[in-house]
Amino acid sequence: MSGNFRALVSLFLLLAFPALALEGLEKGESAVVAKVVDGDTVVLEHAIDGVLAVRLVGIQAPKLPLGRPGFTAWPLAEEAKRGLAALVAGRRLTLSFGGRRKDRHGRLLAHLHDRDGVWIQGEMLRLGLARVYSFADNRAAVAEMLERERQARAAGLGIWDSPYYAIRAPAEAVGDIGTFQIVEGRVLDAANVKGRVYLNFGLDWRSDFTVTVAAKARKLFTGNGIDLLALKRRRLRARGWLKQRNGPMIEASHPEQIEILAD
Fold first, then answer.
1. Tens-place pLDDT, residues 223-245
2. 237 and 200 both lie in a single domain
3. From residue 55, how far is each of 58, 108, 207 by CA, in Å?
4. Per DSSP, what are the bridge partners of residue 211?
5. Mean of the pLDDT values across residues 103-108?
6. Which residues are bridge partners to 131 per DSSP?
7. Other beta carbons within 10 Å of 59
8. Is the domain of 174 the same as that of 238?
């Protein structure tokens, strides 16, 4: 088979079956969606592996209270639920898996595609109705999801038109402890302390924003060709839950949490 013919076949498959373009996914069973819970969770008509609930792995849509006392709905949560319903409600979807298959609540962690090969996670990101939300044990297709997110953010679609979801500067992070945020800035110093790497975005590590990577997690970064200590003076975009540890901190467990930006 010639190189040109192989390229044409690959292009045909990419256009006809978009799911095949996502590396690392293992195709599973299909089922009809009976209920949309929120912008990233659905319930199937029949169980797969004994489970009805599916969490759309790799994304985080604005959250609804869902019976939690005192919980205030995030902006655009209802819009995200309606957007997902328009894509999947009553439709047969194929589940695909790229890592751990169930979360701590017992829900399936799956990528979803409809009969036309439309990738549901990709559509939610494209429409600006979700953010990328990945885990070390579920990293398949995250690069593609980040690209969809970047395009929606550049266009100001959906959540990206709301200050609630705006990218934070390092100095703003202290006001968002306990929340999931995307923080963008320049690393002023990088240090290895007993195997743990600290990327400091301010002059005072005791109070300024920091991204930290544990020794065990560093192996994933090294495997992706990322020298964490070489990130000093580089502009980064980091995402994760902000904790208060000598100032606001994000713990990065896998490379996709950190985007290296052009200077």
1. 999 999 999 999 999 999 999 99
2. yes
3. 9, 6, 36
4. 199, 250
5. 97
6. 60
7. 25
8. yes
Q: What is the distance between the alpha carbons of residues 175 and 191, in angstroms, rounded to a whole number?
A: 25
Closest listed residue to residue 29, CA positions, set 110, 103, 107, 88: 110
- For position 216, which CATH number holds? 2.40.50.140
Check residue 21 and give its pLDDT. 55
Domain of 78, in residue numbers? 3-160
Is residue 65 located within the same domain as residue 23?
yes
Which residue carries 């319930």 as its tokens? 43
| Percentage of residues of the chain with pLDDT beyond 70 | 92
What's the full length of the chain, in residues? 263
Separation CA 118–CA 112 (nearest Å): 8
Tokens standing for residue 247:
């100032």
Q: What's the start-to-end Cα distance of the chain, in Å?
A: 43
Structure tokens at 136: 């070390």
Q: Same domain for 173 and 155? A: no
Reported pTM: 0.90
pLDDT of 12 > 80? The answer is no
What CATH number is attached to the domain comprising 11?
A: 2.40.50.90
**What's the pLDDT at 9?**
41
